Amino acid sequence: MIATVTDPPFATGLTPWAQTLPKHISPSAAKSYLGCSLKFYFERVACIRKKTPAALHLGKAVHAALQAFHIARWRGADDSPETIANAYELAFLRLERDEGPVNFDDDAEREKCRLDGLRVVAAYLDSPEAMKEKPRAVEVLLKEDIPGLSVPLTGAMDLVEGDFTPVDFKSAAAKPDAANAAFDHEIQLVSYQLLMEAATGESPPSLDLVFLVKTKTPQIIRVKSPPADLHRKRRVTALLETAVEGIASNRHHPQPGMQCSWCQFKNECIAWLPGMTAADARRAA
Questions:
Q1: Partner residues linked to 212 by β-bridges
Q2: Global pTM?
Q3: I need a surface site. Which of 24, 66, 81, 112 has the fewest CB within 10 A?
Q4: What order do you get walking across the sheet with 137-144 strand by strand?
Q5: How far is 270 from 284, CA to CA, in rounded Å?
Q6: What Cα–Cα distance (Å) separates residue 195 from each residue in 27, 146, 153, 155, 184?
Q7: Which option is the CATH number for 137-241: 3.90.70.10, 1.10.760.10, 3.40.50.2020, 3.90.320.10?
Q8: Cα(18)–Cα(15) distance, rounded to whole angstroms?
Q9: At residue 10, does pLDDT exceed 70?
């Protein structure tokens, strides 16, 4: 007896590789894509907006205050604690207005967040890590062609010290483990070295992270990483190119893990099927 087929063959809905390259790749985009390509899609392709987490809001306001301090130091302008505290307050309000709403539980949590940020800024200004001399550059944006990458690499360095050391500032709730911190941010740190060497021909003596730890008594902790050797450069370039290929291929899918427990895109993820469009994703939000 010959069986008859009544159902169509199973189809995944996956589309062929579009082979449309992004215009560039940044270390933050690469890390986001490699961490979860579907979350990357929801955030950067479908552009689904969620309430800003309070910790992220605080971190951005602190970052703006430190930027104001370093620019003032670079220009020889007013970098007093009062001026920098005011820059923080203005950034806190501006970010609420322009990038909000912020996911505060209530007014009390908002006030606690605001005061925590002020204490962190004051702790940095009073710490040995606060720059005493003129920086080489502040918030410098670079875009360079890197061997092994099919698109230009871009990156914005928070601070470049006089000896060409790039410094990136990170807000944290707890004291970081130095070895793990350097590894967690390897793509960003080595990307900065690649950009600096391509743009200036100078090799940095160190790749540094400065953590602004929001403990009861704020701590300012510098984590130094040696400049990348050829192996680390090749490894990070390969990771960047993997992200470029995935984005170009429109390859976005769930990557389940412990990070799912705090992800804001659970509903969209549950609704995911191959071939989902940005409009489909927004409807599921």
A1: 171, 220
A2: 0.87
A3: 81
A4: 137-144, 153-160, 166-172, 207-213, 219-225
A5: 9
A6: 11, 8, 7, 8, 19
A7: 3.90.320.10
A8: 8
A9: no
